[in-house]
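Ticket reopened. Same input as before:
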Amino acid sequence: DADVTQTPRNRITKTGKRIMLECSQTKGHDRMYWYRQDPGLGLRLIYYSFDVKDINKGEISDGYSVSRQAQAKFSLSLESAIPNQTALYFCATSDGLAGGYNEQFFGPGTRLTVL
Amino acid sequence: EDKVVQSPLSLVVHEGDTVTLNCSYEVTNFRSLLWYKQEKKAPTFLFMLTSSGIEKKSGRLSSILDKKELFSILNITATQTGDSAVYLCAGNNNAGNMLTFGGGTRLMVKP
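Engineering reply: fixed in the latest deploy. New output:
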């Protein structure tokens, strides 16, 4: 079984719709992240959470919100989707030990298309 | 604002060739540099570099960091078609595992 799972894997929606992307992990990591990937731009951080009560904005948080429902679950919401939010979205986790300076492990990604 | 730039953007080689991928960074309170390989979907971790001049090696892949000149290279020797992927580098700052990614280098290895 995959350590980091994302649902759905693909989603097509219309402008103005509310969308939720979900991430679950079985790695026991306390830190979780949401990124989006656009061609040629690498991965850009949307939000991150270092534990259940901690939520922080990343580089490009406008138009997004998150919820850390449990240590193992971190969801990303688009309250009113717009076409320029069409992208590949990745969830990632890392261990908070050693000051948290460990590699991040990525989920399989969700391809979101907003028409 | 932290910045990571990779070059070249894309590269086409033949099996058996050796390639060098470049990553330059400007990261405030730099902590480490990470390399990832992205094939179809999820990036997979390759190396984490924290000290200058110490090569990390895994099979045909190796990487080194220069903290004075603010760059890292990833070398792949005797390339194989399975090395075809996008290679990402990311800088980590002291804010606690905040990664800034470069745009990636797309490598294609032809038979």
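The mean pLDDT of chain B is 93. The first strand of chain B starts at residue 3 and ends at 7. Please confirm and we'll close it.
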